[in-house]
Amino acid sequence: MLKYDAILFDVDGTLLDSAPGILSTMEETFRQMGVDPAGLDLRRYLGPPLRRTFGEHFLDEADIERATLLYRESYKRRGCHMCQPYPGAARMLGRLRDAGLILCTATSKPTEVAAPILAEQGLAPFFDRIDGASMDASRDTKTDVIRYVLDQPLLRGRRVLMVGDRAEDMRGAADCGLDAAAALYGYGSRQELEPFGPVFYLDSCDQLADLLLGAPAAK
């Protein structure tokens, strides 16, 4: 018997290797905002909400919003196409869906941004819901996103597992009383994720389905 009824997935670093587009867009945005990105560790910003990222560099709320808008405009034109699914992602999602699990996203990307990317990469059909942050600041943290998804009728009363690769995913799951699985193939390290006590550490997409379904994928 399956321990969970539904799985929530982070997107960047969990389903999609989207680092090239994010890093390129982040570099461009900082330059437009007058910040030299050469001395910045931009990989730190793979995962956290944009406003938190830009809030580390700009004190004025107007500048944070301007940087967020510049990033989103550029990312929509070019960066969103610079990604690809991790090996085995589609196979894993298909196996979980075939087993009767409800599949949803809980991403820091706004829903309007995440949905077309997942469609372009062929992953959208596997999901019962694609949900993420709001375009404004009203639903901006991973905790807020997860709470929003859990409040949907489809998930009420369900046993839910959150899968992600960064501390924000683990913290959001903990805040909402969920178990979490840590995707070590993504952008976060074991050292970053371990303090949150994830129930699984995953070295590949296929491993999640293997652990939940109790059998490896057919070769």
TrEMBL record:
GO cellular component, as recorded: cytosol
InterPro entries reported for this sequence: HAD-like_hydrolase_sf, HAD-like_sf, HAD_2, HAD_sf, PGP-like_dom2
Top-level taxon of the source organism: Bacteria
One annotated GO molecular function: protein tyrosine kinase activity
The protein, known as: Phosphoglycolate phosphatase
Native source species: Faecalibacterium gallinarum
